[in-house]
Design goal:
By secondary structure, the protein is an alpha+beta fold. Helices cover about 25% and strands about 30% of the residues.
Length: about 280
């Protein structure tokens, strides 16, 4: 089974308080974007397996994946704890940058859950798949439904929201800087917003520039001035709204028509498309 796990952007991100479990509560609109990895999962029933750790033969190409604990394998293990899954072969071609605030690894894990559910007829509902996804990563459950959502608590509890960017063009600029979640949160000072993000997003997109903000920008822009420079360049090219996504480091711009970057971002990794 072949699939294309896509990334997401955060339209606004307010960090309201620190939780007793060490995580933070936040308010954000997650929006799916077409920049995707490629994931193939094939049943491997004919292979004899004596060691449980060998039940998944995982290979990868594209962007190197650090460490041994790949989220696709963890997703398989999560389902195998409750179901008698046969051995599989997985191949991931990694295209979405890592440490970029795009949720690429979480998307890979979520699609793994969905593909295994379909391949082996597990009959899991979307709600059940989300329950398996939540322990894998704070934004992993979002990619089960993979549609615009207002995300609260750790970013893994969802509410409906009427945000539709259909027809807009987007430019995503990754400045080849990987920012870990721990680094990003180290500079955060949680606070209750004067106006909740949901209310701000009800205004026309043309007003978002002055109101819809990602709290991570406050600490990361001074540390990495190139991020602020990219945001300014996107506005200079006619973006209606621009911001950093997630905990960085990707910065995106929304345009009413097809953008012309004029080669401004040739040093970086850039993806653009229509929403």
């Amino acid at each position: 089974m072949l699939g294309f796990p896509n990334c997401k952007i955060n339209i606004g991100l307010q960090i309201t308080d620190r939780r007793p479990d060490g995580y933070h509560n936040l308010l954000s609109c997650f929006y799916p974007v077409g920049w995707s990895d490629v994931l193939e999962i094939i049943p491997d029933d004919s292979r004899a397996v004596t060691n449980p750790s060998d039940r998944v033969q995982f290979t990868a190409t594209g962007i190197p994946i650090p460490g041994q604990g790949n989220l696709c394998i963890k997703a398989y293990d999560a389902l195998r704890a409750d179901f008698d899954l046969p051995p599989v072969r997985m191949h991931l071609h990694k295209l979405v940058p890592i440490g970029a605030g795009l949720g690429g690894g979480s998307a890979d894990a979520a699609l793994t859950l969905k593909q295994l559910n379909g391949l082996f007829g597990l009959g899991l509902s979307l709600a059940q798949l989300e329950a398996y996804a939540r322990p894998l990563g704070a934004d992993c459950a979002f990619f089960i439904q993979n549609r615009p959502m207002y995300c609260v608590q750790k970013g893994d509890v969802f509410e409906e929201i009427n945000v539709d960017l259909s027809g807009y063009h987007i430019v995503l600029v990754y400045p080849n800087i990987a920012i870990s979640t721990a680094e990003a949160y180290s500079g955060i000072r949680p606070h209750q917003p004067e106006v909740p993000l949901r209310q701000l997003l009800e205004a026309p997109i043309e007003q978002w520039r002055d109101t819809v903000h990602n709290d991570f920008e406050d600490s990361l822009f001074p540390r990495y001035p190139v991020l602020a420079e990219i945001k300014a360049q996107l506005y200079g090219q006619g973006a209606i709204y621009a911001a950093m996504t997630g905990s960085g480091s990707t910065v995106f711009g929304l345009f009413s028509g097809e953008p012309n970057s004029n080669g401004s971002f040739t040093r970086y990794t850039v993806w653009q498309g229509k929403l």
